[in-house]
């Protein structure tokens, strides 16, 4: 019988002053057996610290060392309304990923926490985080990253479209292959470009390849 390898769960600490947000994030942790929540008095032991704020500004960044003063502390910031902080300053304070609350599903949350805890990083858009517009066509995998802040993901549809563009196919050919309308293909492509902060198709494909997304 093959030997079973036991994997220790990622230790997560949560700081969320708003009770409803805290309850939501705690429920996300509880739903994933690969995550384990630590109480506030054990925050220094956490592999990833989740901090939820309405506005990510200088005062929010100044709070991070008070929560955990370890030099290698790794933070995932969940933002409700606005990002107003300097990205370089956020990096220096240990922020490794940014997720907008509107798109923080249990799956997105769990994968983001595991990535932050594991030290993963990918090339990211050329601008500071901007709150994306909601749209019913977007999936729960939507996640926002800033330059140097980890974890940027595309939906499976966006990956498919970008992969086919990288193969030299036009929108009408992609529509036929994926059984979408040409209009839907263009919408998916535009959404991927906007999420990644890219200027055109070539830039989007180049970015996605360098980031290992396709």
Could you give a short description of this structure?
By secondary structure, the protein is of the alpha/beta class. The protein contains 8 helices and 5 strands; from the N terminus they run βαββαβαβααααα.
The CATH architecture of the largest domain can be named as 3-Layer(aba) Sandwich
Number of helices: 8
Largest sheet: 5 strands, parallel
CATH third-level topology of the largest domain: Rossmann fold
Per CATH, the superfamily of the largest domain is Response regulator
Beta-strand residue fraction = 15-25%
Would you count the extended β strands for me?
5
Structural class based on helices, strands and sheet pairing: alpha/beta
Distance between the termini: 37 Å
Indicate the percent of residues in helices. 40-55%
Mean pLDDT: 79
Q: How does the SSE layout of this entry go?
A:
Blueprint: E1 10-15, H1 19-31, E2 35-38, E3 48-56, H2 58-67, E4 75-83, H3 87-92, E5 95-100, H4 106-118, H5 156-166, H6 171-178, H7 182-196, H8 201-210
Helix pairs in contact: 1-4, 5-7, 5-8, 6-7, 7-8
Describe it for me?
With 214 residues, the protein is an alpha/beta fold. The protein folds into 2 domains: 10-118, Response regulator (Rossmann fold), CATH 3.40.50.2300; 156-210, Arc Repressor Mutant, subunit A (Orthogonal Bundle). 40% of the residues lie in helices and 16% in strands. The protein has a 5-stranded parallel beta sheet, with helices on both faces. Helix 2 (58-67) links the parallel strand 3 (48-56) and strand 4 (75-83). The radius of gyration is 18 Å and the shape is elongated. The two termini are 37 Å apart. The relative contact order is 0.11.
């Amino acid at each position: 019988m093959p030997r079973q390898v036991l994997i220790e769960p990622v230790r997560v600490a949560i700081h969320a002053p708003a009770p409803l947000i805290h309850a939501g994030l705690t429920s996300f942790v509880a739903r994933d057996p690969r995550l384990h929540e630590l109480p506030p008095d054990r925050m220094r032991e956490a592999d990833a610290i989740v901090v939820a704020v309405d506005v990510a500004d200088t005062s929010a960044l100044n709070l991070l060392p008070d929560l955990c003063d370890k030099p290698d502390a790794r933070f995932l910031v969940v933002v409700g309304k606005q990002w107003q902080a300097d990205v370089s300053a956020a990096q220096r304070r240990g922020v490794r990923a940014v997720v907008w609350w509107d798109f923080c599903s249990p799956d997105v949350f769990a994968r983001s926490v595991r990535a932050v805890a594991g030290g993963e990083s990918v090339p990211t858009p050329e601008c500071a985080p901007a709150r994306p517009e909601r749209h019913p066509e977007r999936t729960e995998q939507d996640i926002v990253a800033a330059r140097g802040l980890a974890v940027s993901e595309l939906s499976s549809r966006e990956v498919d479209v970008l992969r086919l563009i990288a193969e030299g196919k036009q929108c009408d050919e992609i529509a036929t292959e994926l059984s979408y309308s040409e209009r839907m293909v263009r919408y998916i492509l535009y959404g991927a470009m906007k999420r990644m902060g890219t200027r055109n198709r070539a830039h989007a494909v180049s970015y996605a390849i360098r980031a290992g997304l396709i």
